[in-house]
Amino acid sequence: MRVLSSSLLRSTFRFATSFAAVALVLASVVLTCSQPAHALPAFARKYGLRCSACHESWPMLNYFGQKFKDNGYQLMNDRDAPIWQNPGYWPVVFRITPIWHRVSTGKVEVDTYAAGAPTGGSAIQRISSSGFDLSGLDFHTGGTLEKNISFYLLPSSDSTGAFHFEQVFVRFDNIAHSPWLNFKLGRFELDNLLSEKRILTLTGNGGVYQTYHFIPQGDGNIFGQIGDNQLGMEYLGHSVDDRTRISVSLVSSSDGNVNLSTTANAYTAFVAGSQAFDAGRLGVQRVGFYAMAGEASTYYLTTGGVPILGSGIGNKSFTREGFVGQFYAGPHIGLTIVTQHGSDNAWFGQGYGNAEATDGNGGTTCTAAPCPPNNVPGTTLNAGSQAPSWNGATFEGHYIYSPQLIFIGRYEFEKMSQQANGSGYGVGVTGPNGFTGPMPSNLGNISTYTIGFRYNPFMTSRAGLAWHNEYNWLHQDGTGPSLTPGVLTNLNTSEILMGLDFDF
Amino acid sequence: MRTRLQNWTLLLSSAALLAFPSASSAQLTTSDIQTRIGAESHVGNITGHAKDAALPYRRYCVGCHGPLGDGNGENAVWMLPPMYQQPRDFQLGIFKCRSTPTGTLPTDQDLFDAITRGFDRSNMPQWNTLTKQERADLVAWVKHFSPRWANEKPGTPITIPPEPEVTPERIKAGRDVFARVQCWKCHGVQGMANGPSASTLQDDLGRPIAPFNFTDGSRPKCGDTDQDIYRIFMTGLDGTPMPSFADNIKPEEAWDLVFYLRTFMAQKSKEKEIARGLGLKPVDPNAPVAQQ
Hints:
- Chain A is mainly β.
- Chain A has helices spanning 2-33, 41-47, 51-54, 63-70, 210-213, 346-349; strands spanning 55-57, 60-61, 92-96, 98-114, 117-134, 138-146, 149-157, 163-172, 182-188, 230-238, 244-252, 267-278, 284-296, 299-303, 306-313, 316-328, 333-344, 389-402, 405-418, 446-455, 464-480, 489-503.
- In chain A, the strands form 3 sheets. A 16-stranded antiparallel beta barrel of chain A has the order 3-6-7-8-9-10-11-12-13-16-17-18-19-20-21-22. In chain A, strands 1-2 form a two-stranded antiparallel sheet. In chain A, strands 14-15 form a two-stranded antiparallel sheet.
- The radius of gyration of chain A is 27 Å and the shape is globular.
- Chain A starts with a helix and ends with a strand.
- Chain B is mainly alpha-helical.
- Helices cover 41% and strands 3% of the residues of chain B.
- Chain B is built from 11 helices and 2 strands.
- In chain B, α7 (168-180) crosses α10 (251-264) and α10 packs across α11.
- The longest helix of chain B is centred in the N-terminal third of the chain and has 16 residues, at 4-19.
- Chain B is elongated, with a radius of gyration of 23 Å.
- The chains are: A mainly beta, B mainly alpha.
C-alpha cells in the first residue's frame, strides 16, 4: 500500500508540476500578448487618445468628448490644423456591424390556406424570424480644414449598400477667439444632449429614441423628427470648459431630405441650452432644455392630381419641447432623462402634410393619383378635429464597469394627451387620416425597454471593436392588426441581438 | 529524475520568461508603485486620493503615460520630438511647470493646474471638463508613481512681487536682461526660436527639444499670464535645457524681461505698442553687452 501510495503521489506531483509549467508558459504568452483595452479612430489616431478619453462607451460621448466636438473637433492645443499632421494622415473611418438577431412580432395578419389553396380569409399570428444579418455601413470623415474651420462628411448606406449623405457640414469655430461664436452649415444632428447618432443600442426599435420620433397615429407631419439629421445652419456657443452650452438652429422643414422636394418653403427653429455643475465625487451633472417650433406644408400644387415637387404651401405649425438631465452618481453610474411635450396642428392630425410621401432621398413615392390627402383650396376639417398632443420621456441608465464594459438599460414611454379625432368627431365618419370616429385616448401609446451591454476587448487609439448584446421589447396600443373592423388591438414586438460592432 | 515532458516544459518556461522580460520587470514595478496607492493630494479644500483615480487614469491618461506612468503608453512612440514632446515620465518625479524652485517637487496645485490647463503644442489637452475632485484624485495618482514624494516635500513656491507699471524704460531694461543672460542663444534675437543653439537642444533624456517661439501665436506651456511667464524663467523648466535664472535675474529685472518678451508675442499688447514707438531693435549677439 505504501509503495502504491508513494508512486501515486509521485505521478500526481509530476503531473502537477508539468501542468503548472505548461500553464506558466501559456500564461506568460497570454499575459504578454494581451493588450490593455481603443471612437472615431480618425480623431483618436490624430491626437493619440484612446476611444475612452472622449466616449463614455463608444460612440456615446462623455463630457470631454462633447467639449472636443463643441470646439469643432479640436483639442485647442495649437496642433489642430491639418498642416501639423503627417501628410499621410487621412481622416476616414468605416463602421459596420455583423449581427445575429431574432425578431418577434406579436400580431401579423396572414393569409389562410386549406387543401393547398388560399381560403380568401386571414388570421392573426405571431411571426418570429432569426438569422445572421448586417447593419448599414458608415464612412465617417471629419476634422479640421484649417485651424478653427472644421468639417464632417458621412456617406452612409443601408444594409443593401444604397448610399446617402447622412451628415455633411462645414463649421467655423471660435470666431474672434470666442468659444461663444461657432456656426455651421449643412446637414447635421440637432443639438440633442442625448445624441441618437451616438446611441449605444442597435435593435430596430431600441436603436432609436422613440421620444425623438414619435408621431401620433394618422398624423401627416413628415417633420418633427428631432432624432433625424436636418438641413440648415446652427449657431453654437459654449463656455471654455463647456459647462454652459447654448445652440440655435434654423433648418428646412424637410426632415433632412435633399433637393427641396418636400416642404421646401417652410422652416423650423430649434434651440437648446444646458448648464453643468461640478458635484464633486458624484461627477458633473447637467440639466438643460430644448424647444422646437416650426411649420410644414399641407398643400401641394398638383399636375393631373399628382403633387408637384417643391410646391409645398399652406404651412401649419408644430412644436416639440422638453427637459434634459444627465446625472452621475460617481464614475460608474449614469442616468440621462429626456422629456418631451409635442403638439401638431389639427391639419397634420388629419393626415395632411405628407402629400408627396417622400421616399427620403428627394424623390416621391406618389406617382399617380390618388395621393395622400392634400389641403387643396376649399378643404375643410371634419368637426371634432383637434391638434394632437402627447407627452413622452426617455430614461437611460448606464453602469460603467470600466472604460471597456458598459451595461445599458432604457425605458421610454409616449402617451397621447389629445387625439386628432376628438370626442366630437362624428361616429362612423372616417377622416382623411384613415381613422373612423373619435380615437381611443390611448391609441398609439408606446412603452418600450431595452437592456444590453457592450464589451470592448481592447482599447487603443487605432480601432474600435465592441461585442454587443441587446434585448428590446416594445408595446404599442391599438396598432395591431384586427380581423374585426373597428376593433383595435395592441402590438408587442421584441428583438434580441448580438453583434460585433467595429470601426477602423 | 525529471521526465521528458518536465524537461520540455521547464525549457519552454525558461524560454518564455527570457523572451518576455518586460512582463516580469513590469510586474515588479507595478507592485512597487502599488505600495504608494495611499498617496493623497491637497488642492484648496479638496483632498484627492490616488486609489480613486485608477478608473479616470485608465480612461483618459494611460494611452500616453502608460499603465506604469513611465510615459510609455501605446501612443508615445508616435509623438516624435521636437514637433511633439514625449509624454511625461511620472516615475522620475520631474516636472516643467512648477511654482517651486528648480530641482524641487511641484506643489499639488501646480500639478492640478497642469492637468486643468493642458500643454499647448502637445497632445496633453485641457482636462477642465473633469470635476475638481477628479483632477485632485489624478494629482494624487500622478504622485503615487514616483518614490520622490515619499522622501521629499514639495518646494516652497517662489515669491512673485507685484507687477509694476509698463514703461519704455522697463522694456529697454528687459532688452538688456535678454542680452545679458543670453536668452537669444536659444530663443533667437527676435524670439523666433532660431538662436544658434536652438537646433542642438536636448532634454535630460537626450531627446531633441525646441525652444519656445514667442512670435507664432502659441501660448507658453506653463500659462500665458505675466505672472506665469515670470515664474517660468525664475523656476526653470526642469528636465529641459531651460534653466532657472533665479540666481541671475533680480525680481525687478524679471518683470522688465517679462515686458520685453511680450514685445515678441503675436498677441496685441501695450508692450508691443511701446516697443514700436521706441523703434526698439533686436539685440546684437556680436556686440559687447554694454553696447547692446
